[in-house]
Amino acid sequence: MSLGPAGASLDPAQAENFEDMEKQFAVKCVQHMSTYWAILEKARGSKLRLTKMDDDIYEHFKKEFPEFDPTETINEDKMKSKEGKERWRNFMMAYEKKVEDYNFGTMLRANPKFEYGEKETIFAVRMQFYAIEIARNRLGLNDWIYEREHPKEAK
Fold first, then answer.
1. Is it the case that residue 35 has pLDDT exceeding 60?
2. Is the distance from CB of 118 to CB of 103 less than 8 angstroms?
3. The model's pTM
4. Strands 105-109 and 121-125
5. Helices within 43-98 (DSSP H only)
6. Which 8-state DSSP code applies to residue 15?
C-alpha cells in the first residue's frame, strides 16, 4: 500500500496500523535473536555457517572494514554516523539480490563477550549481523556460549 507521495498528508483512515507493524517487527527481531542464541548453545560458533555465502561475506567484510576488531565492543556512534552508514550501505548493496532480508532489522551484541541484554545489544541490519557474527565465529569468539552449556566438552 502506498501512502502517497513524499510530503503528502497521511490519511489515518487509509494508513495501516503502524503500531501492529512495529509489534510484529519487534517479535521477529526477538525470535531471530533467541534462535541464534539457542544455536550457539548447541554448536560451537567456530563450526557454524550462517549463510551459503559465509566465505564471501567474511572476505568482503575484512576488505571493506579492515580496521574492525571483532573482539572489541562495537562503536555504535561510529557505525551509525553519516560516514558509517554510507560504508555499510555500500557493503550491504552487494547482497541485495543474494541474501534474503539483507536489510531487515535485527539485534546484534555490541561485544562478543556478553549475552544479549538491554545495554549489550544494538539495533543493526541483517548484513551487519552476518558480517560481524561470521567474523566472531571464525575467530572462535562465540565458542564460550557452547562451552558454558557443555562444560565437559570445553577445550
1. yes
2. no
3. 0.84
4. antiparallel
5. 54-64, 76-79, 82-93
6. S
Is residue 115 a contact partner of residue 10, using CB atoms and an 8 Å limit? Answer: no
State the Rg of the chain over Cα: 18
For residue 99, give every residue at least 6 positions away whose Cβ sits within 8 Å of its Cβ, in sequence order, or none. Answer: 51, 53, 126, 127, 130
What stretch of H or E contains 109? strand 105-109
C-alpha cell at 99: 541474501
Cell numbers 562451552: residue: 147
Specify which residues 125 forms β-bridges with: 105
How many residues are given for the chain? 155
Cβ neighbours around 78 below 10 Å, total: 11
pLDDT tens for 69-126 read: 999 999 999 999 999 999 999 999 999 999 998 998 899 999 999 999 988 999 999 9
What amino acid is encoded at 39 in this protein? I
CB 63 within 8 A of CB 135: no
Q: Which of 146, 135, 142 is nearest to 70 (CA)?
A: 135
- Calculate the alpha carbon distances from 105 to 7, 21, 153 in Å: 25, 13, 34
Q: Which three cell numbers stand for residue 24?
A: 510484529
